[in-house]
Structures are given as structure tokens and as C-alpha cells.
Amino acid sequence: MGYTLIEKIVMKNTGLDNVESGSIVIVNADKLMVHDIFIPFVAQKFEEMGFKKIYDPNKMVLIYDHLVPTAKVEDVRHFKIAEEFCEKYGVKNIHRSDGICHQLMVEGGYVKPGDIVFGTDSHTTTYGAIGAFSTGIGYTEMAAVLGTGELWIKVPQTIKVNIDGKLPNGVTSKDVILRIIGDLKADGATYKALEFSGNCVENMSISSRMTMANMAIEAGAKSGLFVPDKKTAEYCNIDMKDLEYLQPDSDAKYERVLNYKAEDLEPVVAYPSQVDNIKTVKEVSGTKIDQVFIGSCTNGRLEDLEVAAEILKGKKISKYLKLIVTPASRKIYNEALDKGIIKVLAEAGAIITHPGCGLCCGRSGGIVSEGEKVLATNNRNFLGRMGSSKAEIYLCSPVVAAVSALTGEITNP
Amino acid sequence: MEQSRVWKFNNDIDTDQIIASQYLLLSSIEEMKKYTFESIHKDFSSNVIEGDVIVAGENFGCGSSREQAPRVLKELGIKAVVAKSFARIFYRNSINIGLPVVICEDLYDNISENDLIEIDFTNGIIKKDNKEFKSTKLPEHMQIILNSGGLIEYLNRKAE
Predict the structure, then answer these.
(1) Residue A220: how many CA atoms within 13 Å on its side-chain side?
(2) Closest-CA residue of chain B to A47
(3) How far apart are CA B149 and CA B160, in angstroms?
(4) Does A375 have pLDDT greater than 70?
(5) Given 3.40.190.10, 3.30.499.10, 3.30.450.150, 3.30.420.40, which CATH number is that of A5-14+21-262?
(6) What's the CA gap between A324 and A291, in Å, rounded?
(7) How far apart are CA A291 and CA A268, in angstroms?
(8) Pick from B63, B89, B93: which is nearest to A380 by CB?
(9) How many domains does chain B divide into?
(10) Fold match between A5-14+21-262 and A268-407?
């Protein structure tokens, strides 16, 4: 009997020559990501557990992103605790203002295909884009793994999502994943892994794949994986030969297989205030909006800013609308500057903010109030996510966001 | 067996609804707990009493990995959460911090807010008046962690 991608990762990690979905195994963490918002809790629990050292300080990556730059005086406490923790336990991998954790983990080469990675953030699933098994855990559990290097996991069943064909113009990987979440519903993949395949995803960039892996959690999935291919090898600077062990077997056992034809897909939004509440852009077009947000670990990459700039070039955004653009990392910010993208966006009337989680996590940089409507490219539209619980958040692709910024209402590209 | 009062919540209650992100920076769970369910049930934290239980629909605790969500419930004295299903990270966090989480398919449709129920964790039975509902029992190693009072206590005990 054959194995799925995630089963192959678990077998390599544990040295077991056979695993079955549903069985509980102890895995070794290849990397552990902690971000600024939860580090005080991790540090406290680590001390309470009585650990004297981190099992391997090089495996920990600490990233400041939710609180950069600080919005409240209390925020600084998190950095102080973080610095003390890193000093005391010899943690060298620390990013103080380089961007959003999930972007940095992939962009910075911390994660490799086939790795098992845990993070204190639910969107840790993002690294599935390069074929890593990565998922979010709580802070107490993180403290325990930092001390022991191990974690028990239940080997998940896999849902294969096969997408073939060519996406129509104006349809992006964001529309694809939103449609899948709408079909699976918010708990349709709970405890399961998603494995994306088909020539449509093979043609996607690593960035587009990150958008989809990032949102796997919104269907409840433990992980959302792409089979490593030539693009992955090139991106990660690895020989394709070393990735062969990660190819799923043709007789692998899937819980079920979903098939999509790319040509059938169209631009969609997640309607307030649940991510699985999917409507086509056509259905909601004409809805007046107060703010547009292009950014986050879902859609703040260079290709996202680039496509927005193409649409906005030489034009002005709607008069009363605020357009907030947040590159996902400093590297992306610099590349967007070099390519003139930032200039185009600024001239169109965008407010460009620093790389970080700011608005998406409701901390800073465009907080909304009662009655406001936001069209945004991030991953969650829950009540109160960006400020007031009486604001409405619609999730969409950067294409829909940019086109709608020009008209001031949700607009079909 | 002890009777517990029910607070009823529907499907897909996410972690932002349990404890909104702007309160995560408060320095203790003690301070955070008064904002529990603020956006959907303003009176919850002031009226909940030790030993109450939450009964919810599907996918309880979806969304973020924030462990503060089960922690504020535990801190407020919630004795257990009984749901049709749970989101994975919430479920795991609950076990690790010692908040009993039980899956029961049928209770939700047969219960109203303020009803009284009895939960038998060991045998997986929930009683309301004369009716009995089957619920999950926890896997043994999870029961050990729960009975120890959470992961830290469990690790400490193991180390002794």
C-alpha cells in the first residue's frame, strides 16, 4: 500500500517504515517558530516546567511581527521578555522588524521540504507550500517542545484536492482556496491534511501556493501541502533528487478526492463574518466599502503587490476610500521599491505601512469602527478581527481588492 | 452527581469570539477573563459561575492557536465544554491546560440555555432529567494529562 505526502514526511522524521493515519506517533521538531505576542506565555511556561535549556536553540526562530512597530506602551514588555529569553537560552534566530513570521520562515530558508515545524500561530500551515508538515500549537505545548524537541501527533488522513486546467483571467490562487473552503466548510478538514495537486497548482508560483497553504486552517486542516517539484527545489536551493522521497505513491490512500476544473472558477469573496461563507464577486458587486487592505501572510507578497500596481497604475482610488498596503516582509518591501511598485501604489493614493501583522490582527494600521465595511486580502473575517465587532470584513484576492479600490464598491474584475 | 448549568452556543464559535485579540496583551488570564465572549454574549463573564458548562454545536474553538481561549474558560470556572465537534488546536490546548472537552452529537439539539445536566467523564454519559446522552470518553493518555491538571503538572509529575 502506498503513502501520502504527509505520511512520507512522518515516516522520514520518525524512522518508522510504516505509518497509518489515525495512529499516534512522536515526531521530532525540525524548527519551532514563536512570535512576539505569545513569547511571554511561552517563557513563563518554559520556566514553570523546570527546563534548564532548549533542546537545540538553533531550531527556535523568534519573530516580532504582531507588535511591530508598537501600538501601545505595554507592547514593549513582550520584547523585553523575548530578549531576556533569547539571551538566557542562547537563541540566535531572532527577527525584530523584518516582516511577518510565516513569510520569513519560508523566505529566510528556515523551513525545508519534508521538515516538521510547529509554530504558536494557526497560520503556520503556510510552509506546506514547499512540502513541509507545519501546524499551529498552543503556548504551553510550545514550551514543552522547546524543552524536549518532541511532540506527539495523530497522523492525519489526507483529502486530495486536484485542480486541473488554466485559471481564467482575474482569478487567483486566493479564489481557488476560498472556493475550496466554501465547499469543505470551516470544519470540513478538521484533523486532516489537504494535499493539493493537478496541473493548475503545478503552474502556480511558490507565492501563490503559500496563499493556499496559509488558509488550509480555515477549513480546520492540520496541514495544507503541495508536493515538492522543480519550482520548490529551485526556490529552496535543493537538488530535485533529494526531494524524490516526498513524492506521494500512486496507490496512496486518501480519505477522499475533490476535483476542480480551473476554468470553472471565478472571483469570490468570503462574506462576513465566516471564512466559509463564500459568494461570487458578481453576487455582491456594488457593495459600498470604506477601506481596502492588501497585505498579510496570505496575500502580501511581491506578486500580490505587483498585480495591484498593474491595475492601479496611473489611476486614483475612490475619493473617500482608504487603501492600506502592507508588504509581508522587508525583502518584499525592498523589491517592490526597486520595481517601482510602491511608487505606483502611493501615487494611486495607497497608504503603505510597514511589514507586519498590524491590521490583520486588529492591532494597528487601519483599525475600523462600527458600521464600516472592509474588503481585505487576509485570511480571517471574524467579528472584531480588525477593530469593532460591528464592522464587516469581506475577504478577496488582490485583484478584486485593487479593482474595487478604484470604484469604492465591490467590483468584478 | 453534581448538576451543572448550561450556557448554549451555536456552530463555528471562533477564538476571536471567545477572547478577542486586543485583550491578548493583558498580562494575565485573570485580567483577560472578563472579556470572554464579549462580542457575542456580553453578560457571560459576569454571570458565569464555577461549575457551569458550555454546550456548543460544531467546530467549537476554530481559528487561532491562542491558548488563552480555553484558559479564560477554565479561569472562569467552566467545568467542561460539550460540543458536537471541536477545532483541532482548541481541543489539544484544552487537554494540555486541563479543561475537559467532550464530544456529544445529540445533546445540543435537546438542550436549552440554563438547563441542568450531569456529566460522567469516566463512562462518557451526559444526563438531562431522565434522558441519557452518549459522549466521548477521553483517550487514556489524555485522561492522564487531564487528571494531572494539565501538561505542566503532568511533566512535573513524570520528572519526580
Answers:
(1) 30
(2) B152
(3) 16
(4) yes
(5) 3.30.499.10
(6) 8
(7) 18
(8) B63
(9) 1
(10) yes
B105 touches chain A (CB under 8 A): no
User: Rounded mean pLDDT of A164-175?
Assistant: 98
CB proximity A382 to B under 8 Å? yes
Q: Using omega within 30 degrees of 0 as the cis cutoff, is the peptide bond preceding A69 cis?
A: yes
Q: Which residues of B touch A140 (CB under 8 A)?
A: 67, 93, 96-97, 150-152
Which helix (H) or strand (E) segment holds residue A291: the answer is strand A291-295
Q: A182-224: per-residue pLDDT in tens?
A: 999 999 999 999 999 999 999 999 999 999 999 999 999 999 9
The CATH number of the domain holding residue B109 is 3.20.19.10
> Terminal CA-to-CA distance of chain A, rounded, Å?
46
From the centroid of its chain, how far is CA B9?
Answer: 11
Q: Give bridge partners of residue A68 from the DSSP assignment.
A: none
**Orientation angle between helical segments B88-97 and B68-75, nearest 10 degrees:** 50
Helices then strands, counting H and E runs in chain A, come out as 15, 18
Domain boundary assignment for chain A: 5-14+21-262, 268-407
Of B16, B87, B96, the CB nearest to A140: B96
The three three-digit cell numbers of residue A260, written as one number: 476542480
Of B65, B93, B141, the CB nearest to A121: B65
pLDDT for the residue B141: 67
How far, CA to CA in Å, does A131 sit from each of A84, A203, B93?
34, 16, 26
pLDDT one-digit tens code per residue, B81-115:
999 999 999 999 998 888 999 999 999 999 999 99
Portion 217-246 of A in contact with B at CB < 8 A: 220, 222
The C-alpha atoms of residue A85 and residue A88 are separated, in whole angstroms, by 5
Domain that holds residue B112: 4-159
Q: Tell me the CATH number of domain A268-407, given options 1.20.120.1460, 3.30.499.10, 1.25.40.10, 3.40.50.720.
A: 3.30.499.10
Residue A399 backbone zone (phi > 0: left; psi -120 to 50: alpha; other: beta): alpha
Tens-place pLDDT, residues A137-149: 999 999 999 999 9
Does A234 have pLDDT greater than 70?
yes
Residues contacting residue B160 through CB under 8 Å, at least 6 positions apart: none
Task: Determine the distance in angstroms separating the CA of B59 from the nearest CA of chain A, rounded to an integer.
Answer: 6
Contact A85, A56 (CB under 8 A): no
Whole-number average pLDDT of chain A = 97
The owner of cell 493518555 is B141
B25–A385 C-beta distance less than 8 A: no
Separation of alpha carbons A168 and A261, rounded Å: 11
Residues of A with Cβ-Cβ distance to B86 under 8 angstroms: 190
pLDDT band at A60 (very low <50, low <70, confident <90, very high): very high
